[in-house]
What we know:
Low-confidence stretches of chain A: 346-353
Helix content of chain B: 40-55%
Largest interface: A-B, 12 and 17 residues
Low-confidence stretches of chain B: none
Structural class of chain A: alpha+beta
Order of helices and strands of chain B: HEHEHEHEEEEHEEHEHHEEEHHEH
Number of strands of chain B: 14
Number of helices of chain A: 11
Strand order of the largest sheet of chain A: 6-7-5-10-11
Radius of gyration of chain B: 23 Å
Mean pLDDT of chain A: 83
Strand content of chain B: 15-25%
Largest sheet of chain B: 6 strands, mixed
Order of helices and strands of chain A: HHEEEEHHHEHHEEHEEEHEHH
Oligomer: heterodimer
Structural class of chain B: alpha/beta
Strand order of the largest sheet of chain B: 2-1-3-13-4-14
Number of helices of chain B: 11
Distance between the termini of chain A: 56 Å
Helix content of chain A: 55-70%
Shape of chain A: rod-shaped
Mean pLDDT of chain B: 88
Distance between the termini of chain B: 64 Å
Number of strands of chain A: 11
Amino acid sequence: MKINLGARYSIVISGAILIIVAILSVLQLVQYQNTSEQLRQISSDTMRDNLVNQILQRGESVSSVLVERLVNPVYRLDMLQMYELIDETAKLPGVSYVYLVDTDNRIIHDGTRDVAAYGQRWGTKDVADTNGEAVFSVPDSPEALQISNPVSLADTELGVLYLGMSLAPVVEKTAAIDANLGDMLRIHQSNNIKRLIAYSVVLLLAGTLLALMISRLFARPIRQLAQFAVDVGQGQYVQPPHVDRADEIGLLATSLNEMSTNLRQSIGEAEFLAYHDSLTRLPNRAQLKRLLRAAIDVALNDNTSLAILLVDLDDFKNINDTLGHEAGDEFLQAFAHRLSDSLVGHESQTAVVAPLRNATLTRLGGDEFTIVLEHVDSNEAAERAASYVLNLLMEPFNIKGHPITVSASIGITFCPEHSDDMSELLRGADIAMYEAKARGGNRYRVYEESMDSNAARQFLFQSGLYKAITTDEL
Amino acid sequence: METTFAWQYLLRAVLLSLLLLLAPSIDAQQQRVLVMGATHSNPKLHIGTMRPMAAYMEQKLRPLGIEHVEVLIVPDRSQMVNLLRDNRIDWVSETAFGATELTQRAEAELFLRKSTDGVGVYRSVFFARRDSGIQDIDDLRGKTVAFEHLNSTSAFFVPATMMLAKNLPLDALVTPREAPRKGEFGYVFSGNEYNTAIWVKLGLVDAGVLSSTDWVNEDILPATFRDEMTIVAESGDYPRAVELVRSGLDPELKDALRESLLTMHDDPAARSALEAYGNTARFDGLTPEDKASLLEISSRLEDFEEEFR
């Protein structure tokens, strides 16, 4: 599967965010758990201490009041009053038990009407039986806080009051507060988790957005450059993508652009050479055929006329033979140059003296050139053009310091007058040119059908040129 | 005009108050106020038991010119004696012992017997733990007996005189912790019936005395306790409570009062007054046995006073 840069960035950044969030969350949750547990413990302990203190204070106050009221009844052994006082106290909320013990550590009163535990030995298990006597233990007493208080008449101690304060409220309240606190902390915790999830979602969204932005920053120009390279590869010289960056991508874009430009130049040159003559840089035969085919279509469609002028220099061979091929080439270049200047129509030339305006000039090979004239108003216009070309040759060319004059023979055909077939038109022009040459050169001839049977045609067949022209072998 | 009315009103009020104040002290042919007396340490608490009776009698005695029945509560019996002598108290309810004291010293007249909770007469019961080996009053020599309190007939006066009759010295102890002198009857006041019962039960004292009604009272001596006890001695029966009138009370008034009291238990309108009046069931005339028993108590009073007062 092909994963693009944007997706990769998204995955990596999202993954990184997830990992960081997960680690932070775990750390935070663990920290919170520890702190809340400590908080709970401390609260619980503080609460318990406070409650125990409260109970102790209350017990001490109850005990001291009871002790005061018990002095006389204990002194007189007034069991009824002791019963009433102890019973009343034992019924107070929070009081677990009340026992009155004499100086011999024996129970005087246990708060019951028939004083069931009277005379039993009071004590805890560690001071247990010195003489094998069972020690009284407070029945049914859950966790209680015991407060002892002496009952004394002046200096004489009459006994000791043991008051048990129930610690059940402490357990209950501590448990209740613990539960409340637990609930509170749990809610807090779950809120924390929700918040963490919300943060994570926001971070993930931000991360994805960041990844998309990064992919836009890097991936898009790269993709554009890639597309550009593909286009160039397919020969489409589109506008290079605008990448204005100082980084490696910018460098890549510049390189690609340069490569494209160079490539286009080389390919342009090759293309140029395929359709042009390397010596005169005029369109060659192949190009002529392309141009001519299009021009014929235009002429037929627009119902206009087209003229083909085939120009062949007279006795050009003499230049090669006498001055060398180099001079011959130079002459051809100079001739092509002089013709080309006429074609584009200089500003100084008037319409009358610019019969070659908008004509297409081609070198067929050797000393043979064609001039295609489109939208020809009349045959005279083509003939004027031919005359013009002949006139151009009147002025000598300076070739390696030698003034050289060469004449030419020109054959003319018209489309659609003579044919609408390219080969036929060229053949006709060729015949007409030979007709001109046969008549001594330095003239033009318009093709006529009668020419087909004359000596020129014979000559053509004999030299094999005709065949070459008609079969495109030239 | 309004001031004149107010003055007249005030004058009348003053005269009436004067008359009321002087009334009891005047040995008048025409007595207008009857005064009920009682000995009690807490007037506020005790007046509630007497007010309904006073209101009832006010209605009954109106035909005889009695306009108001007053209640007077005195803290001790000697003051009661004085007030009876001064004719400032007309009618008193007492225990058997109190009644004999008032007849002897204030020449009060025994009038009627009061039955509370359906019991007209009762007796004193000496009891000890069954495992104590005490079977007779004589066995109590060198031991300690719990009486109730100084003013109790059944749990002090009667049993104390029974012990006095044995011609043995009595040794008053402050708490059960002390031991009597050798050969003497030790006694200690418990303050209430419950203490007497529990002291014997717990072995704090050797024996205790209760009235025969308390002896069978489950609230004071539950059956489980009683089963551990044995009766050591018992006195004869004597009236539980006695109504007395001062000497010299108008015979006509006295007859009317007697008549009203004797028929009170039949009068539905008197029910709440009787109930408040110490849970009284009815009033009866004193039987010859009652009189004999009271006389018997009376005869021991001198010895008793000599020993204890």
